Amino acid sequence: MIPTQSMISRQQRPGVRRLPPKNKRAATLIAFLLIPLSGLITDIYIPSMPHMALELHQPEAAVQLTLSLFLVSYGLAQFVTGSLIDSYGRFRLTLVSLAVFIVSNIVIIFTKQIEWIYAMRIVQGITTGFIVVAKRAFFVDVYEGEERRHYLSLMSIVWSSAPVIAPFIGGYLQQYFNWQANFCVLAVYGLLMLVLEWTFSGETVPVYRNFNWKALLQDYRFMMRSRVFAYGLLICGLCYGTTMIFGLAGAFIIEHKMHYSSVVAGYGALVMGVAWMCGGFLGKASLNKAFLPKLRRSNAAQLLATLLMIVTAVWVYNLYTLLFFAFLIHVCVGFIFNNYFAYCLGRFPQMAGLASGLSGGANFIVTAVTSYTVVGILRPQSQPVLGYGYLIMGGIAFLVLQLLLKKEPEQV
C-alpha cells in the first residue's frame, strides 16, 4: 500500500523508551491481558444490573444506559485514538489511560449518583479506547505475514475470553458482596496492568504520523473505499450487537421473570461467552476457507437457530431452551466476527493504529446503537421477544452479506 500524506519517516523520538527485543514475549503477553479489557468492563457487572437498579432507585433503562454509554464513548474515542497513537506512540498514552481508568473505578465505587456513574463510564470508554487500540496495533507493529494473521485471529479469541470469565466472577461478587465489588476488581486489574506495562513494555510504533484532521479524514476515506472493509465494519457491529442484546436484557429476564439468582444470571452470561469463544475458535480454524461463503453459511445457521428459538417457545420455554438457542446464535455471530474483524485489522498494515481505531470505533458505535435501540423498542421479557431482537440483527447482516457483498474481497 502507498503511504499517505500524513506519514513521516521518524523511527525514534527523544525520551521514548522503545520495546526491548528481550521483552517481546512479555509485552505480547501483556497485550493479550489488556485486549479483553473492554469485555471485562461491559460484562462483569451484568449480573448486578438488576440490583443496581434497585439500590440506586432507577428504572431498568437507566442502568442499561451505563452499558450503552460506555459502548458509544468507546466507539467514538477509537475514531481519534487510532490516529493519536500513530502520531504520539502507543506506550505513554497506554500508561496515562490505565491511570485514569483506575481513578474512574474508584469514583464509581464511592458514588450513589447515577449521573456520576454515567460520566465515569464515558471516561472509561475513552481510556479503554486508547488502551485496546494500542494493543491491537501492537500485533501489527511487531509481527508480519502468517505470524501476524495468527496473532490477529488469536487476539479475537483472547478478547472473547472476557465474556466467559467476567459474568462468572460478577455473579459471585454480587452474591457475596455488592455491585460495587465489580468495580473494585476492575480497579485492581487496572493497577496490575499499569505496573506490568511500565516494567516490561515499550514503544512499538514503526513510523510516526503527523496528526491533523484533514489528513485523518483523508486516510479514513482511503480505507472506506474498500467495499469489503467498509461493510465489514457494519457486519462486526451487528455481530457484537447481537451478543449485547443478551447482555442488556438477559439478566433481567433470568432474575426478574424467571426468578433465579444473580449467580444463575452470571452463569447464563458465561454460557454466552463460551459460545462466542467457540465461534472464535471455529473462525480461526477456518482461516484458509473461502471468505464470504463461510460467513454466509454461518449467517444462515444463525437465522435458522433464531427462527427455531421463536417457534419452539410455543411448546416449551424455560431457562435451558433460552440458553440453548442463544448459545447457537452466539456461536454463529462469534464465527463471523472473528473472521471479519481480523480481516479489517490487517487490511491496512502501514496504518495499523488508524485501521484499529476505525474498525473498533465503527464496531462499537454500531453495537451500541443497534443493541440499545432493539432492546428499547422490544423490551425483551421472554424467549420469543429476545428471538425477535436476534432476528432483526441477523436479518440486516443477511442483507449485507447476500446483496451488498457480491464479490470475493481482493485481499483476505
From TrEMBL:
<feature type="transmembrane region" description="Helical">
    <location>
        <begin position="266"/>
        <end position="287"/>
    </location>
</feature>
<keyword id="KW-0812">Transmembrane</keyword>
<feature type="transmembrane region" description="Helical">
    <location>
        <begin position="93"/>
        <end position="110"/>
    </location>
</feature>
<dbReference type="Pfam" id="PF07690">
    <property type="entry name" value="MFS_1"/>
</dbReference>
<feature type="transmembrane region" description="Helical">
    <location>
        <begin position="228"/>
        <end position="254"/>
    </location>
</feature>
<feature type="transmembrane region" description="Helical">
    <location>
        <begin position="116"/>
        <end position="139"/>
    </location>
</feature>
<dbReference type="GO" id="GO:0005886">
    <property type="term" value="C:plasma membrane"/>
</dbReference>
<dbReference type="GO" id="GO:1990961">
    <property type="term" value="P:xenobiotic detoxification by transmembrane export across the plasma membrane"/>
</dbReference>
<dbReference type="GO" id="GO:0015385">
    <property type="term" value="F:sodium:proton antiporter activity"/>
</dbReference>
<dbReference type="InterPro" id="IPR011701">
    <property type="entry name" value="MFS"/>
</dbReference>
<feature type="transmembrane region" description="Helical">
    <location>
        <begin position="323"/>
        <end position="342"/>
    </location>
</feature>
<protein>
    <submittedName>
        <fullName>Drug resistance transporter, Bcr/CflA subfamily</fullName>
    </submittedName>
</protein>
<keyword id="KW-0472">Membrane</keyword>
<feature type="transmembrane region" description="Helical">
    <location>
        <begin position="61"/>
        <end position="81"/>
    </location>
</feature>
<feature type="transmembrane region" description="Helical">
    <location>
        <begin position="387"/>
        <end position="405"/>
    </location>
</feature>
<feature type="transmembrane region" description="Helical">
    <location>
        <begin position="26"/>
        <end position="46"/>
    </location>
</feature>
<dbReference type="InterPro" id="IPR020846">
    <property type="entry name" value="MFS_dom"/>
</dbReference>
<feature type="domain" description="Major facilitator superfamily (MFS) profile">
    <location>
        <begin position="27"/>
        <end position="412"/>
    </location>
</feature>
<feature type="transmembrane region" description="Helical">
    <location>
        <begin position="179"/>
        <end position="200"/>
    </location>
</feature>
<feature type="transmembrane region" description="Helical">
    <location>
        <begin position="354"/>
        <end position="375"/>
    </location>
</feature>
<feature type="transmembrane region" description="Helical">
    <location>
        <begin position="151"/>
        <end position="173"/>
    </location>
</feature>
<keyword id="KW-1133">Transmembrane helix</keyword>
<feature type="transmembrane region" description="Helical">
    <location>
        <begin position="299"/>
        <end position="317"/>
    </location>
</feature>
<dbReference type="InterPro" id="IPR036259">
    <property type="entry name" value="MFS_trans_sf"/>
</dbReference>
<keyword id="KW-0813">Transport</keyword>
